[in-house]
Structures are given as C-alpha cells and as structure tokens.
Amino acid sequence: MTRKGDYGFDAPYVLVGFALAFIAGAASFSYGRALGDDTLQWIGVYGLAIGVLCGGAFFYATRIGKHVVWGALLDELALAGDETVLDVGCGRGAVLLAAAERVPRGKAIGIDIWSRRDQSGNAEAVTRRNAELEGVSEQVELVSCDMRTLALPDASVDVVVSSLAIHNIPAAAERAKALAEIMRVLKPGGRFVIADIKFVRDYAAELSRLGASAVTRGLGPRLWFGGPFMATSAAIGAKTAAPS
C-alpha cells in the first residue's frame, strides 16, 4: 500500500528501547566471545533476538502493518462516500486520511492534542501537509481538543475510528469519559472501530453499557507492536440506543 505522506512512528521511545537492546546484545556477545564467557554470549544472543525480532515486528506494525490493517477495516465499513468520519487521536493522519479518501463527498474530522511522546513528530501542521500530499485536504478538518471533551455537537458524525489512542489516558474513569464522548457525537446507528493495544474489552463493555452493540476482535500479527504480548485488537460496533 503506497502512501504519499509520512506518518512517523508510534511510541518512538519503545522502538529506541529495542534498538538499545540490539546494541547491548551485540556488545555483550562480542565481549563474552573475547573472554570466552558463555553466559555473556547467551545474554548477548538474547539481546540481539529482542532487538531484531521484537524491534522488527514493531517497525513493521508502525510503518506498514497499520496501513494495511486499517485499509481493510475501513473497506469493511463499505462507506457510501458522503459520511462524516471522526478520528479520535488522529496523530499524523494514517487512519484519518485513509478514511478521507473513502468519503469524497463527506468529511473526515481529526482530533488530537499532538503529543510527540505518543507519535514521533506529531503536529497539526504535519497532518495538514500529509492531507495535501494525499490529495484529501478538502475533506479534512483538524481540531485541537482532548478526547474527553470533544468539540463537536451531539449526534453529528456517522463513524468514529480511533487507533492506539485511548489507552494513553491513564485512569479508567477518564477513559470512560472519552468513550461517553464518542457515543455522544455518534448519530443513532453510527458505527465505530476502536483499535488499541490494551483495555479493548473494557471499551466494548463500556460502550455496550452506553447503548451500543459492540464486539471485540483481534487484528492479527500485522499489528503486533513487538510481538504477541503487545497485540492490537478492536472494539467494533454501532450506537443502537440512548445511554442508560
């Protein structure tokens, strides 16, 4: 899948950690071999394996896998092309702009607080530039706001998507506020796809409590951020009733 924009790296500090594991492993193996120390050599092999295997899986997921998987998820929505789609925590626009391509007569709204800890080089200007490169500027609207207080009217969007964003809120009660906001802005019958590396079952349960039909689904090895211990899954469903 060819994209013209540059979408950076998710959680860049994690990728740096894998790189450091590789360097430390190489040093330990070399030093152990020079000393004839088998223990140091095995520690080195372990570090090299973490760096290559886990780092490689993470690099693939953040640079390639997320585009492939999200392309398939958006295709499954079978959008008519005139919907309003909201991306909660849009970052540099990997999902947002793919959605915009599928709503040529609609709108794709991205909200973010533009944290560079959560995504390398994250900035509103970068996302706008990516929208220009992808040829979807006319469909894209960017809003700087917290996902717990969405600056959007009630029942104003047809679809909500979110990728690796909500888990960055540390407290469960605060994550629940973000989910309540998603339900507030969704139209009756509006759909959602919320992908994350943890708390997804909690998301589905809370969304169901708020009046949605929600199921969870694993998204496969293309979105293993380092390995199966950091696999991505999704809460997928629709708003079906008023909150209880």
Give a concise summary:
This protein is of the alpha/beta class and 244 residues long. It is 43% helix and 20% strand. The chain has a domain of 161 residues: Rossmann fold (3-Layer(aba) Sandwich), CATH 3.40.50.150.
Q: Keyphrases for this structure?
A:
244 residues; Rossmann fold; alpha/beta
Q: How would you explain this protein's 3D organization?
A:
The protein is of the alpha/beta class. It has a domain at 79-239: Vaccinia Virus protein VP39 (Rossmann fold). Helices cover 43% and strands 20% of the residues. Strands 3-2-1-4-5-7-6 form a seven-stranded mixed beta sheet, sandwiched between helices. Strand 2 (107-112), helix 4 and strand 3 (140-144) form a beta-alpha-beta unit. Helix 1 packs antiparallel against helix 2 (38-76) and helix 2 runs parallel beside helix 3. The mean pLDDT is 95.
CATH secondary-structure class of the domain at 79-239: Alpha Beta
> Rg from C-alpha positions?
20 Å
> Which percent band covers the strand fraction?
15-25%
CATH-level-2 architecture of the domain at 79-239 = 3-Layer(aba) Sandwich
| Helical content class | 40-55%
What's the SSE blueprint?
Elements: H1 12-35, H2 38-76, E1 84-88, H3 94-101, E2 107-112, H4 124-134, E3 140-144, E4 157-163, H5 172-185, E5 186-196, H6 200-209, E6 212-218, E7 233-239
Parallel strand pairs: 1-2, 1-4, 2-3, 4-5
Antiparallel strand pairs: 5-7, 6-7
Helix pairs in contact: 1-2, 2-3
